[in-house]
User: What shape does this take?
Amino acid sequence: MKKLWIVLLSVALVMAFAMPVSAADVKFSGTYEAQGYYDNNRTLLSTAGASDSFVWQRLRLQTDFQIQQGLSFTTRADIMERVWGASRSSVVGNMTDGNDQESENIKFTIAYLSANIWGGLLRVGYQTQAKFGTDFADSGEHYQGPRVRYDYPIGNWTLIALWDKIDGVEYYNSTGPVGNIGVATYAVNHQADKYVGAFMYDWGKGNTGLLIYYYNISYDAGSATNPTSADTGFKSKYWIFDPYVKARMGPVYFEAEVVWITGTAQGFENGINANVSRSGWEGYASLTYDFAPMYAGFTVVYLEGDDPTAGRTTDTAGAGGGTDFNPCLMLWNYDLQRWMGGLGASGTVNGDAVGISNAQLVQVFVGVKPVPKLDIKASFTVAQADQPGSSVNWQSKNYGNELDVTATYKIFDNLSYMVGFAYLWVGDWFKGTDPSVQLSNDYLITHKLTLSF
Assistant: This one.
């Protein structure tokens, strides 16, 4: 009888603790992606080319807890993001950069609360960062970090104020300046913050907006964790202005975005090193004309490169095209680069998968939807660099030309299957400074299954 009462009491306690939680409305949503690649000649060399093929996958699961009216909590995790068949490992890797092992197969990327207060929406916690306007210059798909954001709607207008703590290497460390505050030789304190103000206006058939960033970042000795010299610490303080527009006018859809950056990339406080100024811009525009069942259009992209002849006191590069912007299946395709590495023998084009930069490209495309569930699209892209890779003996600015053909079929409303083919006529940019390099063209075959729920 005593054991029975203990069991009943335990059940009652469990129910008592669970009752407040069960009062919350919990919703699940997400995506599952599995994509296969065959790249015939990733190195682009005629003598040492090698093919590569694999399948990668990711389950992205988001959970929304509706605590009460006007108050909620959101989490999101990337689960089993890995290459099929890759060996297990006890070494924990960074899956965001394309780790192909299973050691870290659940990674929470988002955790924040949302509250309707003062007539607007307040969000606090780890959230999607670097997402505004069009996909150009955005990295919201793969980058999240600490953020406090407040949105205030006024009719068709939305006013936004936010503060980002830039995630990564900019953190407190006991061996750095913060932990050695009495050491006078340390030039700067350790921090990385972004302050942002923005507005958006929506008129029904389109929207526009302007985002203004102010970056305040401090570095120490080129290493963010343990300075080795008192002479190389510096501060970066610069502004980014980011206007965009999206509009539909009858059968024509148009979108564009411009990013301008200005300020100081490296401001040294030791009086020894010369400061580095920061100035660069980039722009994107795309127009699509819909004459169902067909459509056609063009895209123009410009990203200013860093002039190698300008000297070390000037940084002229644009802010970068971001990881969400994938104009081609091969050139500057984020997923392909983060799993396979850079394109070319030495990963010459964005080998660390940071998105498009230092580029000028024009793309024309045409598509047809013979049935509502099938979309067939072909595009041709001409691409070259804005600046050479070095000030001496760089062979060419020509990245090459790429033909892409894709067909996407919606098996169900929430399940689609894509097959694609790409062919790259490689340009002499990939010779670097060596005119004797023998290049060879490359082609890619891919297919992708996407489930949303």
Observations:
- The CA atoms of residues 231 and 270 lie 6 Å apart.
